[in-house]
Amino acid sequence: MPQLSEDQRIVITGVGLAAPNADNLKDYRNNLLAGKSGVGEIDLRYIGKVPAGICSFPETQYRKRKENKRGTRAGCLGVYVANEAINDAGLADFSLYEQKRTGVYIGLTEHGTVETENEIFNLSQFQYNTDFWSHHHNPRTVLNNPAGEITMSLGITGPHYSIGGACAAGNAALIQGAQMLKLGEVDMALAGGISESTGSFGIFASFKAEGALAVHKDPAKACRPFDMQRNGIVVSEGACLFVLERLDKALARNAKIYGELAGYAMNSDAKDFVLPYGPRQAECMQLALDRADMKPEDIHIINTHATGTRQGDIEECNAIRNLFKNNPHTYINNTKSIIGHAMGAAGVLELAGNLLAFEDNLVHPTINVDSLDPECALDNLVANEPKKLETVNTILNNSFGMVGINSVVIVKKMTST
Amino acid sequence: MILKEKDLMTIDEIKNVILEIIRDIDDEADFTNLDPSEALRDQLDLDSMDFLDIVMELRKRYQIQIPEADYPQLATLDSCVNYLLPRLEAA
């Protein structure tokens, strides 16, 4: 790929997040480096106690309780992280980029499940008389809901919509935001993902029915990708949005640049409803490398998608092993082991968790690896303790989802233009 | 059914019910200088969806159906009382 002009290069200049173990990037990074789990236990309607990641953040910092009550949990998370991201970027006054030239692109694994379950439960209290079905159900369950709630909070009048991409959705929305900037559709993009999935018993019950819901007497140890004792997914809520802008404009305003979106790719397995497929994941990683004009040896950190299921972890490890073999400078970690699986937010939250490696040159660890599965024994897997590298210039972030959707994003450190 | 006098809701009780429902919608609502004869929407942070919340809550609590044509009669605290008093007696 030829060197792109600066107005076609997209950079991250703001980060807002709510993770199960932190509500800002600095604390999040510190907790990931310390391997401090954000997974606890919730008691959910019908299904009872399950391990889950729940976010604690100042919910009324950017809008009233009344609006949080009217909206959705996804909207509440979204409004918080959108305001945090745009403040972090120093662009909250919209003096450089107008509100009508700003786009909001939100990756969602699903939306409306929580609200619909709640309404049906409410209806059950009234003998299923639909006169008691809430007028809030439509605005809460339209698929653009979380993005729309963000536009109302910030007065953004540019485009807003959701990207439905199962658990690849966060990366997919990040890619969408970058593409809209490249096309000139907007001048600033708020792009990332949100998950409110911990409010849905159905999501837990369905993973359980698939034999893919993690159980452990200590919830902090329930999510254990690559470990022999792994037994499934820990569902988490969370949100992360990045402010994206064009490099020329970011340089002109002397913005803090977290990294450049150097390459990305998406593809489809075209095989199975739930089972992942390593060869297609490898193709997706290769495509992202090609777009970034990089070779496997140029990648310093691979953040794996691995969720802690037996087959999923092995498929991804095989894909990485094939593509990155004999490659001593590439290190591998996993963020889900610490925060659980934040579904639509997973890809971007996990990328955010690694972004500051460009500053501290540390690879945060994969925790809960007590007995490494030989089939997951990748070279340079960073397990249980962080790893200091001489330098970290590139991160490759995997995010895959059900019905065979794969996404890969490569971010590189801004050294010189 | 013939209601005994003690079962009937008083004007003040109905006002309190309305304010309680509004408080549940917006726990920051300030009733300090609320004029019962002026439109609630002009004095409080309420919109059409909030009024539907009030209608729904009355339905849940007292099983009364308020037809859409009657919504304007819920505009002020006083008009709420006037409208609801006979209906809550009948409920």
Q: How would you portray this structure in words?
A:
- The complex is a heterodimer of chains A (417) and B (91).
- Chain A has 14 helices and 15 strands.
- With 417 residues, chain A is of the alpha/beta class.
- In chain A, a hairpin with a 3-residue loop joins strand 2 (39-44) and strand 3.
- The two termini of chain A are 16 Å apart.
- The longest helix of chain B is centred in the N-terminal third of the chain and has 15 residues, at 11-25.
- Chain B is 53% helix and 0% strand.
- The model of chain B is unreliable at 1-6 (pLDDT under 50).
- In chain B, 16% of the residues are buried.
- The interface between A and B is small, with 11 and 12 residues.
Secondary structure layout plus pairing:
The complex is a heterodimer of chains A (417) and B (91).
Chain A: E1 10-18, H1 25-33, E2 39-44, E3 48-53, H2 65-70, H3 73-89, E4 102-108, H4 113-124, H5 137-141, H6 145-154, E5 160-164, H7 169-183, E6 188-195, H8 201-209, E7 235-236, E8 238-246, H9 247-252, E9 259-268, H10 278-291, E10 301-303, H11 310-323, E11 331-333, H12 336-339, H13 346-355, H14 357-360, E12 362-363, E13 387-388, E14 394-401, E15 405-412
Parallel strand pairs in A: 3-7, 4-5, 4-6, 10-11, 10-14
Antiparallel strand pairs in A: 1-8, 1-9, 2-3, 6-8, 9-15, 12-13, 14-15
Helix pairs in contact in A: 3-6, 7-13, 10-11
Chain B: H1 11-25, H2 40-43, H3 48-62, H4 77-90
In short:
The complex is a heterodimer of chains A (417) and B (91). Chain A is α/β, with parallel strands linked by helices and 417 residues long.
Overview features:
heterodimer; A: 417 residues; alpha/beta; three-stranded mixed beta sheet; 14 helices; globular; B: 91 residues
